[in-house]
Design goal:
The structure holds 2 protein chains of 2 kinds. Chain A is 74% helix and 8% strand. Chain A is α+β, with helices and mostly antiparallel strands. Chain B folds into 2 domains: 228 residues, Rossmann fold (3-Layer(aba) Sandwich); 53 residues. Chain B has 10 helices and 10 strands. Classes of the chains: A alpha+beta, B alpha/beta.
Chain lengths: 288, 283
């Protein structure tokens, strides 16, 4: 407890240095939080597409129900297909209306006639999608085939790239934070050098000297993580309605509060490690 | 007991701070460490608390070999030796009570017990009324007393005082010396580094004199063999006394004998402080 008191006294007595340390930590954890949220959201989008029918075949207007039934039967008999769902022109219109219910102008222009009927097909194995897709394309009644494997792989590559950029940026910021924290704590150690020397001469062990600085570093980390997380969650709540509009039908937002609290807990743990480690380095370097 | 054997200290610059210094300070002894500036007084005191290491030789304090002492044991050693630093080293942002209680805090004493002990020691050194003041609010003599209080707080067996009267006027200096003598009477071994010739002359006690890093005189030191003989004589005298008189009378007699023998012994080995030292001080 006495170490906490000493650490708190050190923080109060140099408010500008404390402010600088907290700002640096806040930036790091703001970036961490934002990348974590974006990454989590994009993974959910990928999962959504992966769980959806992988191939959609749109029929020409002249396709009759018997030909469509025959194609459906052929696909089911192949043994590769997990499910096949027929979507009529009317059902397609209903889906369109649901997706654009807030935009009456778009609704007025569209009727069931101009929307094609379709088959939504998913396979047991993602590798069979190409074969199924090629088979359907050969059918004369099929006008267009949307092969969602491409969408998934594009999204996956975007997510991977995002993760790499995020890890790079956060690592860079973490390293910068460590350096700045080492400098700030180092200045504090240098300011108290005589006091530390006196304490050591009357019997203070190394850890008696180190603990208050380590606690101080951990405090800056925790405070920075709390502020960074709060700002990012604030941005998320502000942007949620806009993103919901953009991600029509994809259930990503709003994010679960449990996930947000887990993120906070993780950030606090990382913040303590980061802050304490930086301070330890500073004390080690300046107390030689 | 403090034993220095053939201790030399060579600084990084190549200059020798101490050259082949050997002496022993017995338990309960009061010894002055004298010599002009740069003679090695502070170097010896610094080595006794392992603030500095000898380049050569050995230092043993109460069976603790200071040279071979592992680094993690150094705080333990320093808690056992009270030190009054030349520049006092009181922490300016802590009150006197906080400064004095620091060694207790380092030893893990509970704050309630610590407070009691601090008040006791501050009372002993006569600055209890200043306990809540900061060092800057005290006079030189009071600050010196605060430093003594901090050195005494863990009841050390050994007290090292580095120029404790250095910046004080004569009257205050004597008050500090009297206080140290009083502490010595309670059994604490004291080594006091000083270049105050008046104090050294007026107090009849052991004087270890250094010059340019070498031990040039050890006035009043009782060698081990001599001490043994005196002890045997004393014991004999005591046993004879015991036969013929009461316990109280025998103790009184023993004390006198001791004083006589001590005086004789110091008379035998007594040699005035070297002229060099006096001249150097006058300069």
């Amino acid at each position: 407890m006495k170490f906490f008191k000493i650490a708190w006294k050190n923080i109060r007595r140099s408010p500008y240095q404390a402010f600088a340390a907290i700002v640096v930590m806040t930036l790091t954890f703001l970036a961490f939080s934002l990348f974590a949220l974006i990454f989590y959201g994009s993974v959910k989008v990928v999962n959504y597409f992966e769980s959806k029918p992988q191939v959609t075949a749109f029929f020409r207007d002249e396709a009759n129900p018997e030909e469509i039934d025959a194609l459906e039967k052929t696909l089911k008999d192949s043994g590769l297909v997990a499910s096949v769902k027929f979507v009529s022109k009317e059902e397609a219109l209903q889906i369109y209306k649901d997706q654009n219910k807030n935009d009456p102008l778009l609704l007025d222009l569209v009727t069931a006639d101009i929307l094609p009927s379709s088959l939504e097909i998913s396979t047991y194995n993602i590798d069979d999608l190409s074969l199924v897709s090629e088979t359907i394309k050969k059918a004369p009644i099929v006008g267009e085939v949307i092969f969602q494997k491409d969408v998934v792989s594009t999204l996956t590559s975007w997510t991977d790239a995002l993760r790499k950029v995020g890890v790079f940026v956060v690592t860079l910021l973490a390293i910068v934070s460590i350096f700045i924290m080492v400098i700030i704590i180092g200045i504090k150690v240098a300011q108290k050098k005589e006091d530390i020397e006196t304490m050591r001469l009357i019997g203070a062990g190394s850890w008696y000297v180190r603990w208050p600085f380590i606690i101080e570093g951990a405090f800056y980390g925790i405070f920075g993580a709390l502020i960074g997380w709060t700002i990012s969650v604030g941005i998320l709540f502000y942007a949620t309605p806009h993103f919901q509009n953009f991600l029509k039908g994809i259930p990503v937002l709003p994010l679960s509060p449990v996930f947000l609290l887990e993120l906070l807990a993780l950030e606090i743990v990382i913040a303590i490690i980061l802050g304490a480690f930086s301070s330890y380095l500073a004390v080690l370097r300046y107390l030689k | 007991m403090i034993v220095l054997e053939n201790v030399s200290k060579r600084f990084g610059t190549g200059v020798f701070g101490l050259t082949d210094v050997t002496f022993t300070v017995e338990k309960g002894e009061f010894a002055f460490l004298v010599g002009p500036t740069g003679s090695g007084k502070t170097t010896i005191l610094r080595m006794l608390i392992r603030e500095s290491m000898p380049t050569q030789g050995s230092i043993v304090i109460n069976n603790w070999d200071i040279v071979k002492l592992p680094g993690n044991k150094v705080p333990e050693l320093r808690k056992r030796i009270g030190v009054i630093f030349q520049d006092l080293k009181l922490l300016p942002d802590r009150t006197i009570i906080e400064n004095v209680s620091l060694p207790l805090e380092l030893s893990g004493v509970k704050s309630k017990d610590a407070l009691k002990r601090v008040e006791e020691v501050l009372d002993q050194v006569g600055i209890l009324e200043h306990s809540n003041k900061f060092p800057v609010q005290l006079s030189g003599g009071e600050r010196q007393r605060a430093a003594i209080a901090r050195a005494l707080i863990l009841s050390p067996e050994i007290l090292l005082a580095d120029e404790p009267t250095g910046d004080l006027d004569d009257a205050t200096a004597w008050e500090i010396v009297d206080l140290l003598k009083e502490i010595n009477l309670s059994g604490t071994t004291i080594i006091m580094a000083t270049h105050n010739i008046e104090i050294v002359k007026k107090i009849n006690t052991r004087v270890i004199e250094l010059n340019k890093g070498a031990l040039v005189n050890d006035k009043g030191h009782k060698k081990k063999e001599e001490k043994k003989e005196h002890q045997e004589e004393k014991n004999e005298a005591k046993s004879k006394e015991k036969e013929s008189s009461t316990v109280k009378a025998s103790e009184e007699q023993g004390g006198k004998e001791e004083k006589v023998s001590s005086a004789q012994s110091s008379g035998e080995s007594k040699k005035d402080i070297t002229d060099d030292f006096e001249e150097a001080l006058k300069e």
